[in-house]
Amino acid sequence: MTALSARALRGLPEVRPGDDLAELVAAALGDEQLRAGEVVAIAQKAVSKSEGAVVALEDVHPSERALELAAAPPGGRAKDPRAVQVVLDQSAEVLRAERGVLVCRTRHGFVCANAGVDASNAADGTLVLLPADPDASARRIRARLRELTGWDERRGVAPAVLISDSFGRAWRHGQLDVAIGLAGMHALEDWRGRADAEGMELRATWLAIADAAAGAADLARAKDSREPVVLIDGLQRFVVDEDGPGAAALLRPLGEDLFR
Amino acid sequence: MTALSARALRGLPEVRPGDDLAELVAAALGDEQLRAGEVVAIAQKAVSKSEGAVVALEDVHPSERALELAAAPPGGRAKDPRAVQVVLDQSAEVLRAERGVLVCRTRHGFVCANAGVDASNAADGTLVLLPADPDASARRIRARLRELTGWDERRGVAPAVLISDSFGRAWRHGQLDVAIGLAGMHALEDWRGRADAEGMELRATWLAIADAAAGAADLARAKDSREPVVLIDGLQRFVVDEDGPGAAALLRPLGEDLFR
Lengths: 260, 260
Fold this sequence. Notes:
The structure is a homodimer. In chain A, α1 (21-29) packs across α5 (134-148) and α3 (64-70) crosses α4. The longest helix of chain A has 15 residues, at 134-148. Chain A is α+β, with helices and mostly antiparallel strands. The first copy, chain A, has two domains: 5-50 and 131-252, CATH 3.30.1330.100; 54-128, CofE-like fold, CATH 3.90.1660. Helices cover 23% and strands 23% of the residues of chain A. Chain A has helices at residues 21-29, 44-50, 64-70, 81-90, 134-148, 209-219, and strands spanning 3-8, 39-43, 54-56, 91-98, 101-106, 111-113, 126-128, 160-168, 175-183, 189-190, 206-207, 229-233. The first copy, chain A, is globular. In chain A, the strands form four sheets. Chain A has a five-stranded mixed beta sheet with strand order 1-12-2-8-9. A three-stranded antiparallel beta sheet of chain A has the order 4-5-6. At the A-B interface, β1, β5, β9, β11 and α6 of A face β1, β5, β9, β11 and α6 of B. β1 of chain A pairs antiparallel with β1 of chain B, so a sheet runs across the interface.
């Protein structure tokens, strides 16, 4: 039977710049062992903080453009122009700047509000950025976890690492966690061209399993507590030895974007 | 501890028009009992089939517009103009018709490819439509399950019903299951204005939990087997007695749409 389970790892301390995140995870696991093919899902903010991807507002000098974009929209609130400058610095393109919302394409290629820059759960006067290369972060954490747990190949495929962040959607309310970094797991499951239970070819069936896994992990986490790490069991069929192309495989290329 | 688990219900027959879906679920459960506050996640196609939301292509007469839109794009394949007509009939608005893709706003307000019309897992020469009112379908199935299982209030909150479909995303590859119908579960969890672990106000934290649950359910389901129903445990904190506003609460109103 296909079954899925997800549980938050407890006992992690608040993550600080320079922390070895894999070491914190290994310590929090205690006597518990990671299972073969398990997925270790980590909230982006913990990864960013450990990598020091944090900016102090007092060090930021807003440009003219940032000052313009920070002005209050009709009926809305003004933004801190320094925060807007940080968003611009993280963006390859601003897709929309309306109704007080900045929808940006980040330098990685992610399309999201404020280029993923976030003040929540950050120390006062600072902003947390997305990791510079979240797929590389995932690969690094996976390798380190393998090392720290003394992973023995005979136990099976080493746990995969998935880094998630909450993104809004163009036509739906609310945010949903998606995969922004990935190592050792397929991002997509491709059923295009395969036959379904009635022998008909399945059309347009290309599943973003890493994004679904990110969402599942978030459901197992209490948002106001310090539970950035969730262990997901039951996705073994998508977990592989090679780190693979990561979450970058989920990005729709610019040339196929119908909604710029 | 917050923990989530999802398991596909086995032994369901192929769903036919007129079938009582709740009855099929109750029969497939056998001796197993639904738990209080569990979420019964059902793939849209099973609901649509049971409701007879199916069109035979031979009964469709394509309009001029359908014939135009069906023409092959450069380097692409032509579509069946009758299938395009069915998509148009289901659409309130065609947002994009480029590269062989029809992105539509359905009459319910969902934005998705082909207005949710699908030929996969459908009988030859037929297309499956979205349910006419998926929230009403969810409420009906929930009430019927409550009745068939002789749900006793002393056992706790009756299981919620979530109807999901796989939608593409504007900027990411692959499809992801989202909630299109819902009864007895909050669609969104609102943390806006609450304080996080460091006492800072969480900004823009409005989680589309019903969509995350739909994605989690899909991970517990084998796409080529007949497993339209998945039981999700661990979301009790979002499940309530009242059926509530359903998945309609997830729709971003037209006036807030920046990407038409």
